[in-house]
Amino acid sequence: MISYAEDQGVPYMLAADDVALSCSMVESFTPFLLSFSQVTAPPDQLAILFYLMAGNCTEFKAWEEELRYLRAVYAKNSIEAQDARIAQQRFLGLAARRQLTGYHYLTKAFVEPGPECPEFSSDNDEFYWLVGLINGIQAIINDIASEGTADVPMDIATKVGRGASCLNNEKWWGAPDAIQAAIWITIPGNRPTDQNPEKILDNSIHMGLEQGIRIPQVIATQVYLGLGQIEQVKNIIRNHDRLKVTAATQTHAILNQVSNLQIQAISDRLWTKATGKRTPLGKLGTFWDDPKKAVETIDIDELL
Predict the structure, then answer these.
(1) CB 126: neighbour CB atoms within 10 A?
(2) Fewer CB atoms < 10 Å away: N or C end of the chain?
């Protein structure tokens, strides 16, 4: 079963483009698969990926509760707003716990990220290392948003930053530099004096879009949203469709589909806060306060 999951199940899931079906598989299959650790070598690497996905699936539910909260605030319904916020924080806490578990599986499968890099034996090892680092940073983000209900250790952030330097940035779609830049920007006292994290983050976005993977775009959007730099967030979302289709786009389609949902969720948050409703259909990349385009008019008298 473990060999099947590694050789067939995971590649199939990564190439899939239906996030809801992948969520159903991950949430139902993870306990079953990990139960084999009682009788054989534990599938720690698989757990890294499965717990990231399981955490993402819980985030989706949290986003819906956040939109319910924002609609209630817009309608001045305080009871509904309070209830939605509680539900949102519960889901975010669960997402953080799942992603923290995925990070712990990273340390079991390899080593605790730190001054020393592990010896990777394959591209798969490097991929699972990257996924484990994303688990760590997402666990911190969701724990903060849930007001610390998951008790995620904050020192994971610096460990994740060191771990990102173990990967080739260009090979992995700009994601390692995006992770490091995000930590430099958001964690007090981590900003280096000889680096420009914002420029590094911008370069990572462009590299990811050129190589067909949106992960750096999502990381940057989350960073600037957390800093309250809404115009930066809007600019990133406006460029969401500048993605080149590459081999990585197809073999890792589920990563992009999750990233699409994350970008759309942030757009929905901005739209709902301003207008009381989420992003209109077909309007992702536009905003309610965009200048109206001039509409060409025809003089009806000229047609008579």
Answers:
(1) 18
(2) C
Q: Structurally, how many domains does the chain consist of?
A: 1
Q: Which of 268, 169, 186 is nearest to 222 (CA)?
A: 186
Global confidence as pTM: 0.91
The CATH number linked to 12 is 1.25.40
pLDDT value of position 293: 67
Euclidean distance between CA atoms 146 and 250, whole angstroms: 34
16-74 pLDDT, tens digit per residue, is 889 999 999 899 888 888 887 777 777 899 999 999 999 999 999 999 999 999 999 99
What is d(CA 89, CA 103) in angstroms, rounded to the nearest whole number? 21
- Phi/psi of residue 235, nearest 5 degrees: -65, -40
What is the rounded distance in angstroms from the CA atom of residue 176 to the CA atom of residue 179? 5
Between CA 157 and CA 179 the distance in angstroms is: 10
